[in-house]
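re: the backbone from monday

yeah here it is again, tokenized this time
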């Protein structure tokens, strides 16, 4: 059951995390599952009080929560520029999910062992978040997250780190003393 008006602000990190009844390490409670959507409602130093969709609340180490993007980035505050049609990326996500689903069914039916399942699913990677008309899709081919509003698709974030700046076209400046370089 989801609380009315619940809108996650964060998700639990990929390995889950411990939770406490109060901001006191002596009062542990049930640990949180990986990628659980939560709403950060209060901060006390490193402690963060979170609210789950079902209304349950707990305290966590707020430094480890992963922020959920609320709006797509735009340079001028306007709508994202149309860069691509989202349908091919959606079709790819559907194919990858269908392939994974088929492998799970074969594993559950005993037609695959664990090693064959691992080999068959190796390299499969998708990511999809849908929130009403907004959608974030992972484009594994280009290593980027994209944002789509139904008609427009734009890059949101990439797997690449910052790139080196281009060569300025001249040698670096040297400090020269009266005695030479």
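seq for it, each position gets an aa:
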């Amino acid at each position: 059951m989801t609380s009315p008006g619940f809108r996650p602000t964060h998700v639990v990190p990929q390995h889950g995390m411990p939770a406490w009844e109060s901001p006191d390490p002596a009062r542990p409670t049930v640990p949180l599952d990986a990628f659980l959507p939560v709403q950060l409602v209060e901060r006390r130093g490193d402690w963060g009080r979170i609210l789950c969709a079902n209304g349950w609340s707990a305290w966590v180490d707020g430094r480890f929560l992963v922020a959920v993007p609320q709006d797509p980035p735009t340079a001028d505050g306007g709508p994202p520029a149309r860069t691509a049609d989202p349908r091919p990326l959606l079709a790819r996500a559907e194919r990858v999910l269908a392939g994974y689903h088929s492998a799970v069914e074969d594993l559950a039916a005993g037609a695959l062992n664990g090693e064959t399942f691992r080999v068959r699913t190796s390299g499969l990677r998708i990511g999809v978040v849908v929130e009403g008309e907004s959608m974030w899709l992972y484009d594994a081919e280009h290593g980027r997250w994209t944002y789509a509003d139904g008609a427009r698709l734009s890059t949101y974030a990439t797997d690449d780190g910052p790139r080196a700046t281009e060569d300025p076209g001249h040698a670096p400046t040297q400090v020269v003393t009266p005695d030479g370089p």
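Strands lie at 10-11, 37-44, 47-52, 57-61, 66-67, 128-131, 134-139, 144-148, 153-158. Residues 87-108 form the longest helix (22 residues).
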